[in-house]
Design a protein that fits this description.
homotetramer; alpha+beta; Beta-lactamase; five-stranded antiparallel β-sheet; three-stranded antiparallel β-sheet; 45% helix; Beta-lactam/transpept-like (chains A, B, C, D); acetylation (chains A, B, C, D); glutaminase activity (chains A, B, C, D)
């Protein structure tokens, strides 16, 4: 079955009753004040067709979804061993910001999608780029074709004021020799990446290279190699949803990446990229209605990687 | 590209130089004495074609590969919640027999493919089946079409003599109320499952339902539903290779399950099931040459789930 | 100031209002049914004087206090290295029955007073004594001069029925090569030791050697050397009160050993042995009113080791 | 037996062969370059007599011994609950700078003598004192009667350059709401305290209040109450020697505090304070020859708290 606007609308109506049963992220005020009623879904096919429903053109804080973008940029800039000597490829089996595992494993984060790993990626980008923040923004604008994408400065500043645990993570990695730059500027870059404001349509377009063997459907450019694409999808499938990757694979069966802003992207390799948005989260920190929407989508169109 | 016997032979020759660089499992004598020179690969397509090379008809100890078979049987016998209330679906992020996580998570194993989880599955089978050991053997014989499959009694007895850690795991789960039967008989069943002797051809045929929406290609029977098939593949993809699932996904990109006997099965949903065997293991406990053979196979035939 | 019966009575009245604010151990029925109103204190001076108040002649389940007796017996039977190669001398910093530390530290328990350590001691006694259970009983009878001391068979049997966690501990140590005998008989001995029924007077007399350079005041016999006495007291002071050793030292300032039956023994080296009993426990598992009674006693007589 | 200069000299000769069998702390160059041949012992009796031998007048980096001084100052300035709500009184059972326990226990350090706890104490001092660094220096000068005591600025600066792990600890405590001031200035104060240069004679005099019910023998002033003195000694006895407190109690049997500079202080309550110095450390981070000297001293004069 092919996805249609009606299908997306039906799915959103079916999951809307979940609103009120999750919890909007409230560790910073700028996220807490987002309306829990927002609900959106967008599909971008490898043919370049956009199918959308709900608040799919409204920009929101993409938060950890940015980790997939930052890792892609790092994979463009660095040789594999320069990345994978400093961060692992295995699921963490622990809360996404735990320091226990980081200490036990000598400052090498489990994967690039837990906070520690994304901070290492931010450190890598800081080492090689003269203006990493500007570069990442341009990368997002180019891939989405949306030149109005901006950083939400209030969110970035607010994250910075609640950055003690991430500072602890960065300093611990420094103590193990796995952090090269000054902690504060790197964290600032990291929080800016999390504060990117993008819509579901933006996101689906941006990550289209993951569904298309590394070629951006939007720009037609080869962003990463086919092998790197497969690697990125493998990492997303095993590590992309915090401590809920197994459950997501079991229910949805697509590589994906979530953010505490309530967005999730998911990939059907060879076919399409999907983005959903619903701000309320489940206990693992993934969008409650968003996950359910993806599960329904997977069932209804009969697609999954498994 | 379609797999051929020549392709498999080429791959085995390409990986053969890895022999000598891994380590045959030696925690029990019966495994330690297996020749490290063994090398085999078999493909079973959804059309019912067998393609094989090397020692593909020689039976070996399938060890943890049996966990996928036991879980399948449990999914046939139990409602989902009866299983998933007692065992999780998330990667463990720790060594496959660690008790630390089990204690922290109150006796609920992370997933059915670490030892603790497989022991819970064995406990479930013991509760519902009058002769669980016989039933599993019949299940394997039926799915493979090979009526000569047996338990290696020497291996099972030897495992039982080195079962202290698994006994500790079972007793700890009992202390948390997550174990219903007597420990020793359940462990005995568990070790017998691990001691199944099957060839690569047997294995590829046995697990054909995972590539074929739940229908065994060998028997034509529906073993599990299409949804259960997707769920099983999702669990294999995120948890099937001990603490090397992420690396395996990154390199091979297929759902799989390994055993310390050196076997690995891998699934290309909709197309085929693959089994490899090479007794030497990498540090994660997965077949060294076997993993490499699957990576090459994935590259050469251009198939992966990502 | 010298202790008198009046002093003990005054102290018991002062702490009596704490009854109702703790919690009687209820993990086995035989302990749960003990009246929470019981309150007792006994002092045995190095001159052989008994001073007592409350229910000081009523026998109760000494539980973990037996660990000090078992260790003493092991130190009589074994060379130091035969003991200390198998069990440490450091506080555990974790709940008394946690397996996390035991796994991290390769099956070597932190000290002989956590469960794992006491089970190693029980294993040692089982290896060298033909009738370890009988020998320990005789040891208690001889040291206390009370020939009526018995094992509470109901308590021992009840513990055995709730022994899953301790079985897990023993099997894990076996997996690390730190357990020599069959698990079940050793646990049975261990639970019998815990099920010794002794009164405060019995206990104060029994442990008088710890206050008297190794010589039992009751029997006049040298039980352990002066150096061993100092070592035993050092272990009691740093590890004798589960995860409340620091707090106990801070408040009471005496080497001591508690049991979940609500008993505590404490030592004033060179002067006297004290035993208290009140069944309700604080969150660390130590007698709530008993600890307070010892703190008052320490203040009023102006004695502590610090 | 009373201590004499000859006794100390004999003891130093007896332990001198241990030199070469330990390891001088080398995590900062300023400590690594200290001669491993240094050996010193000083006793300060409650009568005001100084007995000394070896390099007892040579100042060295007292490192963690300063934690006992800082805690004393905090106990003078704060009510008990203001301190003990923020730091525990229990041994840690883990390496002195581990973050695992700190994370598990929600940012409350186990005791004031592990790094995390001492950093909390430094945070407390920073909150209440206008010039905490100057105040601590004056405190040491006053208690020792040695007005030439200084901070080793090279050591303090060098520690600050290797402070990543301690910064991680401080930030993690901030994330849990258990740190009030800016991280860097507090760490700077903490490292200055560690960089105090004092001799064995200075140290024995400085801590004389711990042997004399809170009254400094040197100044005749009441520094802390008798109860606080008992509490400080209890904390030293259970937590003063990193992860070697149990072993130290077992062998030496005195409250004590060690530093990675190779110094140790020990207390015989009611009688004397002892300081030793030998730069080479054992695997627990305590002076190898120094511990042995204290054990011999304890045996020869027949004193211990047990």
């Amino acid at each position: 079955m092919k996805p249609t606007e009606q299908l997306l609308t039906d799915i959103l109506e079916e999951v809307r009753p979940l609103i009120g049963k999750g919890k909007v992220a409230d560790y910073i005020p700028a996220l807490a004040k987002v309306s829990n009623q927002k609900l959106a879904m967008a599909v971008y096919t490898n043919d370049g067709e956009v199918i959308k429903s709900g608040d799919a053109d409204e920009a929101f804080s993409i938060q950890s979804i940015s980790k997939a973008l930052s890792l892609t940029l790092a994979m463009v800039l660095y040789k594999p061993e320069e990345i994978w000597d400093r961060v692992g490829k295995e699921p963490s089996g622990q809360a996404f910001n735990s320091m226990i595992q980081l200490e036990m494993e000598q400052g090498i984060p489990r994967n690039p999608f837990i906070n520690a790993g994304a901070i290492v990626v931010a450190d890598l980008l800081s080492s090689r780029l003269s203006a990493p923040r500007q570069r990442l923004l341009e990368f997002a604008r180019q891939l989405s074709g949306d030149t109005h994408i901006v950083y939400d400065k209030v969110v970035a500043a607010s994250e910075m004021m609640h950055s003690d645990r991430n500072a602890a993570i960065a300093y611990l990695m420094r103590a193990f020799g796995n952090f090269d730059n000054d902690v504060i500027p790197v964290l600032n870059n990291y929080f800016h990446a999390c504060a990117l404001k993008m819509s579901c349509v933006d996101l689906a377009k941006t990550f289209s290279y993951l569904a298309n063997k590394g070629v951006s459907v939007q720009t037609g450019k080869q962003i990463v190699t086919p092998t790197q694409t497969k690697q990125l999808n493998a990492l997303l499938a095993t590590c992309g949803l915090y401590d809920g990757a197994g459950e997501f694979a079991y229910r949805v069966g697509m590589p994906g990446k979530s953010g505490v802003g309530g967005g999730i992207i998911a990939i059907v390799p060879g076919e399409m990229t999907i983005a959903v948005w619903s701000p309320e989260l489940d206990p693992s920190g993934n969008s409650l209605a968003g996950t359910q929407a993806l599960e329904l989508f997977s069932e209804k169109i009969g697609r999954s990687i498994f």
